[in-house]
Amino acid sequence: MTKTSPLLDLDEVALTLPSTAGPVEILRGASLAVAPGERVAIVGPSGSGKSSLISVAAGLERPTAGRVRLFGQDLSALDEDGRARLRRGRAALVFQAFHLLPNMTAEENVAAPLEIAGRPDAAEAARDWLGRVGLGHRRGHYPHQLSGGEQQRTALARALAVRPGLLFADEPTGNLDERTAAEVARLMFELLAETGAALVMVTHDSSLAARADRRLLMQGGRLQAA
Predict the structure, then answer these.
(1) Which of 20, 32, 36, 208 is deepest in the core (most CB within 10 A)?
(2) CB-based contact 144:174 (threshold 8 Å)
């Protein structure tokens, strides 16, 4: 039986950042392997390094030590542009603060990464994905005209429209009320099941973490079973 290579493989990753009080160790030998289609939730107290782990795993920040392999590629061998090209169309990110482009409509936000990928049907695909998240009637609205839940559903549509193999989600329901958070969580896992994308998610929401295949605790800069 052939063993499937992980989409993401972190090996003894360390991250030290400067501060006015001196260097701060954020990650201290964190290791993680994520298989295709696997959904992993990372929990832990504020300031434990969860968001930093996402940044390092997605190639947004370079680790101080250790190795990160994304889709089989050692990220240390790539510059910033190379890491961006590797992510394009293969990995996507959803953040707590939505990060929609304020001068673009919902449809234009979802279409943007499709256009970058050279999809001639970007606008049509964006409309389709907004329909899937229940926002077909809001496609011409700008982010400031959308509620928090609508903005996050738009962000989900934008992330998954490119059919990535791996979705990174950093507190995807953190800015939402309980009812809206539950709806966004349900929708996210439905879309993940449909697309087959793997998930690495940071969350304080225990009910959201419980939906994952595997839950890990970030403590002392390391990951352990939750």
Answers:
(1) 208
(2) no
CA-only gyration radius of the chain, Å: 17
Give the helix/strand (H/E) hosting 110.
helix 106-116
| Residue pointed to by tokens 């009637």 | 137
Question: Rounded to the nearest 5 degrees, what angle is found at the Cα of 7, between the Cα atoms of 83 and 78?
Answer: 20
Residue 14: both structure tokens together: 């360390």
Total Cβ atoms within 10 A of residue 196: 10
pLDDT tens for each residue of 4-21: 789 999 999 999 998 888
In the three-class reduction of DSSP (H, G, I as helix; E, B as strand; rest coil), residue 118 is classed as: coil
| 8 A C-beta contact, residue 71 and residue 89 | no
One digit per residue, the tens of pLDDT, for the chain of length 226 reads 456 789 999 999 999 998 888 898 999 999 999 999 999 999 998 888 999 999 999 999 999 999 999 999 999 999 999 999 999 889 999 999 999 999 999 999 999 999 988 899 999 999 999 999 999 999 999 999 999 999 999 999 999 999 999 999 999 999 999 999 999 999 999 999 999 999 999 999 999 999 999 999 998 889 998 7
Q: Any bridge partners for residue 199, and if so which?
A: 39, 167
Residue 138 DSSP one-character state: G
In angstroms, rounded to a whole number, what is the distance separating the alpha carbons of residues 70 and 91? Answer: 9
Read off the DSSP letter of residue 24.
E
User: Which value, to the nearest 10 degrees, does the dihedral of the CA atoms of residues 184, 190, 195, 198 take?
Assistant: 70
